Amino acid sequence: GKRSRPHRTGAGARLGAARAALAALAVGLAAASRARNPVFYDREGPWREVVAQYPDSVRGRNNLGTELFRQLEEHGADAARAPALVTEIRALFEGLLSFNQADYYALTNLADLERKVGAPERSAGLLKRSLEIQPAQAGAHLKLATNYHRRNRLAEARRHYQEALQLDPTEADVHNNFALLLRAQGEVDEARRLWRQGHAFRPDNSLLNENRRIIFGPPP
Question: What is 24-61 written as a DSSP string?
């Protein structure tokens, strides 16, 4: 017949009750945390769980690193949590590169982090590596062009803006940045042509609208 489950008495029953209370407390705290901050849990929590259970998960590491970088961008590099975020993000993406040195997304995400922490040379090196792997990525060309542009390496910036435009002629941010470079170098007509082209694609682009007066104003 059926075997009856033993009935706990004394110390055994008390230990079981204590364990049940701890389990309830942990679940209760987790539930309360999710209820207090559902956005944090929805975006970060599941990927933390994936990485905890499957440390080699490419998707888990990439998505957790991307979410933590979003938080870093939102709260700023000077926020109290920033150093810990930077360390964790770097570890996540460098871990992906240890699995696969040709991971395009890990390279570009790590390049974004290096830009954020003020290491443009390292950022550029990572972007160049990413373009060796996937040379037809307009986004990486734009990031590398902007990196060079900010450091006044204008010939290299121009080349990568041209590559980005050729790959994606509708990307308004390329039009904006390249137009500013050309305007500063005195190529006014071409700068205005690029600005108009970008504005036709994205009339709501905030950077284009903010820079209208620079492109169409008097020489600096």
Answer: HHHHHHHHHHHHH-HHHHHHTHHHHHHHHH-TT-HHHH
Is residue 158 a contact partner of residue 152, using CB atoms and an 8 Å limit?
A: no
Q: Whole-model pTM?
A: 0.77
In angstroms, the Cα distances linking 63 to 100, 137, 163, 216 are 16, 20, 28, 41
**CA atoms lying within 13 Å on the CB side of residue 110:** 28
pLDDT tens figures, 124-135? 999 999 999 999
Sign of torsion, CA 114 105 155 219? negative
Q: Give the CATH H-level superfamily of domain 136-219.
A: Tetratricopeptide repeat domain (1.25.40.10)
Tell me which CATH code domain 41-134 carries.
Answer: 1.25.40.10
Residues of the chain with pLDDT under 50: 1-41
Of 167, 172, 114, nearest in space to 140 by CA: 167
Q: What three-state secondary structure class fits 5?
A: coil
Distance CA(28)–CA(34), nearest Å, equals 10
